Amino acid sequence: MALLPILEFPDKRLRTVAEPVTEFNDELRQLIKDMFETMYDAPGIGLAATQINVHQRIITIDTSEDKNEPLVVINPQFEVLADETEKMQEGCLSVPGFYEDVVRPNKIRLTAQDEQGEEYSLEADDLLAVCIQHEIDHLDGKLFVDYLSPLKRNRIRSKLEKLHRQHA
Question: Is residue 108 over pLDDT 90?
Fold first, then answer.
């Protein structure tokens, strides 16, 4: 297994729309293992392949306290199941050190494939529903800062650009 470098906002590669996965093979399964290792090490509860500069529709998630409920999400789609929304503070491994409130639907049904290519469906609410939507946004080239005001988004961009210059 290997720790993979995570792209950081405002890297333009984070805006790439990911392509569907068509081959379910050992290479894919190794990538998923590496994604989990990277996500747990970061530490995070979700990681989209886009964040590691792999532009395929692959997500790893684990919202459990003990990091023992890994969820592999490939070629995901979701539908909103309830009108209720939830305001939750979101952070992102690609926007390190920043947390902001984002409003999203509270209950969804996810349809996706696992690492073997088997299709599955699950209903999610609260943190898992938010995490799934946040990670799918990554696959669509969208970041949680896109839900913020232009002023807040530009302030975060400026601070991260300054940090990147200092570490370059």
Answer: yes
Does 6 fall in a domain? no
Is 92 labelled as part of a ligand binding site?
yes
Range of the domain at 136: 12-167
Given a cut of 80, is residue 23 above it in pLDDT?
Answer: yes
CATH number for the domain spanning 126: value is 3.90.45.10
Is 138 flagged in the annotation as binding? Answer: yes
Active-site residue flag, 135: yes
Q: What is the dihedral of CA 37, 31, 48, 72, to 10 degrees?
A: -80
Is the pTM higher than 0.85? The answer reads yes
Domain assignment present for residue 70? The answer is yes
DSSP sequence for 76-96: EEEEE--S-EEEEEEEETTEE
